[in-house]
Amino acid sequence: MAQDTISHFSHPGHELVKRHHVGPSYFCDMCWEPLTGPGYGCVAGCDFAIHDSCAAHPQTLSSPELHAHELVLVQTHEELVCDVCVGRCAPGSFLYRCPPCGFDMHPSCARLPQAVRSTLHPGHDLTLVVADGRCAGMVLPLRVMQR
């Protein structure tokens, strides 16, 4: 297998080749966001393509800061809501799911920083807080926590 060709769990049975996608007509089959720039496409001629960064998402994720249980990256077949950003998860897109709890999270929300410093509130860090399955707080779902 060439270095620019990968096998990926999101598209079993077909290899994906590294491509540079141009134009707004392509959408990532993992996150359903516009696909422009580096990504991977199916070598078998399927219409399947994913961002370079989406190809790096692990199949399972443990993040005690966001959820107590291990999360599994699955493809949804119905429209769901991300329990972190409360954004739409389109049918066919991938999301991290906790099977016992039904907790759902966009893969991109898993990459949110746990703490940030804002120029609007420089005296304290803003800390990501997930409460009751939803992200609670202010400024990009962050709540001020004094340190």
TrEMBL record:
Q: Which UniProt keywords apply?
A: Repeat
Q: What InterPro entries would the database entry show?
A: C1-like_sf, DC1
Can you tell which superkingdom this protein's organism belongs to? Eukaryota
Residue intervals of the DC1 domain:
9-55, 66-110
Tell me which Gene3D superfamilies the record gives: 3.30.60.20
Q: Does the keyword Repeat apply?
A: yes
This protein is called what? DC1 domain-containing protein
Record organism: Eragrostis curvula (weeping love grass)
